Amino acid sequence: MEPQTAAGKVLWHFSMSLDGFVAGPHHTMDWMTGATFRPGLVEEYAETTGAVLGGRTGWDAYPDPTGIYGGAWQGPVFVLTHHPEDAQPTPGVTFLSCDVAEAVRIAREAACGKNVEVFSPTIGRQLLERGLIDEIDLHIVPVLLGDGIRLFDNPGGAPVRLELLVGDDGKAAVDVRYRTVPGE
């Protein structure tokens, strides 16, 4: 896969379980313990990210912007919420109560030509519906959670066609093969 570039894109970016969850119940992330990622991945995203846009529920579960990319990234964080008045003020974090398109505009401006990373399934889905997501970056962790917060949950909605950015065939299916780990 080509390295991520800082091109002013809006990225919907997550590590995800094989069954489509980006967080466990109550936004737990302990399921990622022991997962390995390709060398330089964290640094790649830390260098190309100019701003982060997330939702209030995720922020309330992890209200520390210094933990983004294990502390390797620092920059403006925007939290979209219906109730900014009860949010705990945090340096570097701006609580927004506006339309998602306006939130992306604000984050893009703050990103200064780098990418805006969307760390919210709900906001990402809304942006996708409006054509405001440039890329979806997923890192599939070899685990089946069975419950939690899905990346894309749109019952009754129309399918969203995507183009694969790896390889020569943008319509190619991605082959993944795992085996179960006894005793876990």
From TrEMBL:
It comes from the Bacteria. InterPro entries: DHFR-like_dom_sf (IPR024072), RibDG_C (IPR002734), Riboflavin_Biosynth_HTPR (IPR050765). Residues 9-163 form the Bacterial bifunctional deaminase-reductase C-terminal domain. It holds the Pfam family RibD_C. SUPFAM superfamilies: Dihydrofolate reductase-like. PANTHER family: BIFUNCTIONAL DEAMINASE-REDUCTASE DOMAIN PROTEIN, DIHYDROFOLATE REDUCTASE FAMILY PROTEIN (AFU_ORTHOLOGUE AFUA_8G06820). This is Dihydrofolate reductase family protein. It comes from Streptomyces coeruleorubidus.
